[in-house]
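fyi for ur records
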Amino acid sequence: MGPGAIIGIVVAVVVFLIIIWVIKTYNSLVKLRTRCEEGFSTMDVYLKKRFDLIPNVVATVKGYAKHEAETLEKVIAARNSGANQSIDQRVKDENQISGALRQIFALSESYPELKANTNFLSLQNQLGDIEREIADSRKYYNGCVKKYNNKCLTVPSNIIAGLFHFEKMSMFVVDDPSERKNVKVEF
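which gave:
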């Protein structure tokens, strides 16, 4: 075997290893992106459950606090207006709905009759359960997005991500700074 044959074999092995690396990196990016989509889809199921309960909350609250019920209805209408919204827009809309729900449930302190309404209390408990499920699914989704984004942005996998147009995904974050403040609890 001459030196040319050895160089040819080395080049072939290196090319083969590069091809294997490209395939492996591409497949891992696809798997991570699919996991992110699955995480968002799971969260979307809980958001839909919450969304389905909201008309009942609005109907219960209307008799006690018309203005707040109208606020929530406007937020829902805004969400319904955008059929195929981006994840960023969905995050914004869901944060608005969360804020409106918090306002309505805070109202129960001002309206003793509402606070005593069994239907309202039941809806509040159901929404509380769903909010915990949403929080858990947001954690899962954000964890998946973090792994995916890290893979897309770090060297050398960012080369494959760029070549095959794997775009950075958005996390599901809290937009409203007031939601980050500590809650004051009084007894």
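The helical segments are 3-62, 66-81, 87-107, 112-116, 118-153, 157-163. thats all i got for now
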